[in-house]
Batch of 2 targets.
Target 1
Amino acid sequence: MVQILLIEDDATIAAGLAYSLEQEGWKVTCKGTLAQGREAMAAGGYQLLLVDVGLPDGSGYDLCADAKSRNIPIIFVTARGDEGSVVLGLDMGADDYIVKPFRLREVVSRIRAVLRRAAGEREQLVRLGELTVNTQKGQVTRSGNPIPLTAMEYRLLLTFLAHPGQILTRGQLLEGIWDVAGNFVNDNTLSVYIKRLRDKLETPGQTLISTVRGMGYRLEVDGHDKK
């Protein structure tokens, strides 16, 4: 179920919005201040933030950077409809900007559009701790810094990503990287590629690819299990 965090200090507006959104099958949590919103967001579990800009203890804009760092889409709902405010909100990274007074069906429609867009982006980005794999661009980064992989190493990583937490035999891994460059990959070569992938992706004290003796290898989804 989609969980929405609504931060709105007007109780009447918050109640009406929450009721309408819950009719769509979404779960809505309402908070009335910036501080309450921060606390709720830190607890996690939300797929979208719906935030009033003018709050009693600060600006809803102040939540934008935190929301984006957590990859939570954010929509501002505010009475500030001038062009400067709209541009400011969008430039800060907001996914949409709805001006009061609004029509409830329009809000629902915009939320659906943002959720669809966010779902598509999540499918393209796979995160493993500090590592991020952008499957659309074929890029791997650690904390924003690119990690160069060869075509074979990247194909091997994708094979692991398709089966997170599962034990893959050497045969299954060989099938996954069989002809990426039109070259034959033998069992000994596979060991070399796994070692190179570990060297490039793992950090001291971290295990990303575990050896399961007598069975194969496993991608550790938390990246900290021991070999």
Note: Residues 178 and 184 are 7 Å apart (CA to CA).
Target 2
Amino acid sequence: MKVENFVKILNSDFYTGVPDSQLKALCNYLMNTYGIDSKHHVIAANEGNSTALAAGYHLATGKIPVVYMQNSGEGNIINPVASLLNDKVYAIPVIFVIGWRGQPGVHDEPQHIYQGEVTIQLLKDMDIESFVVTKDTTEEELQSIMNEYQEILKTGKDVAFVICKGALSYDEKIEYTNSYEMKREDVIKHIIKVTGDDPIISTTGKASRELFEARVSNNQSHKYDFLTVGSMGHSSSIALGVAINKPDKKIWCIDGDGAVLMHMGSMAVIGNNKPDNLVHLVINNEAHETVGGMPTVAGNINIVEIAKACGYSNAVSVENFNDLDKELLNAKESNELYFIEVKCSIGSREDLGRPTTTSLENKENFMRYLQN
């Protein structure tokens, strides 16, 4: 189905959410149509953030907003759905558009499998009526469902469209770029040249995939790395837990700007604990690149100053490899909590692979290395 027709049937003039590759057609349409126009479209830090933002829109206008997300974001909306939107509380109607990763019977990555299995059940548990949109769904069928949903929305309940792979299409092209020159994959190669045998916890998405392939290219073991293939925004908290309990090891966290924004409160906890053996690297390309390249707000805020305000002992930003190498060595030799923002370009190799080891193997190898 053409995304233009999908949007027309939803008949809402306000969208907010977190970009998803399954919803790339919708995200690109919204960017081409509205950009980041706060009156019509806001890319949120996380899905709970977007749900509350949608509630504010309804309170101010009386109209029905749309919240879009990957199904992994259902966990982030449970609290605001149950204690804010629910018809037993404030009865705020919202249309959720959810990309169905890990759909049963459709091959996907391990972090999506269980989430895919429980996607529909979680919506039922939250008392959200849902309809699955497939490649075969017609506009007439969708309009009929939307007519039924209008009656549900009038009662203050919420509804959801769960979008299967390839169900939405968009013919217009959109290219996401920034002005930085360093490539993330090269940045990661510079990082592991300095870290040596130190453990690394890497964030969700292409950063972990590039770290895995860099180890292969160097004929290095994968035991040094914990690849946080799911649970976006939590790699730095994992790293803190490791750093506190392995004070004799230098622990490195390779993070992303979208992940940092998603659960920024973790930086305050890290800064308060001040582990002197933790280096927190944020590769900032100002984009949700892994799911398509849609922008984050990380280009309009000062992450270094935020880190300092949270209590990081050292916080710097670099835009070239000379400065990166210098700060990596400083961090390696430092006995204080260190934060490095690395400004880099958007883009990756088209033939970028995925880890060939299982998540369980990754965990067991990493734990064995830490213990030994």
Note: The radius of gyration is 21 Å.
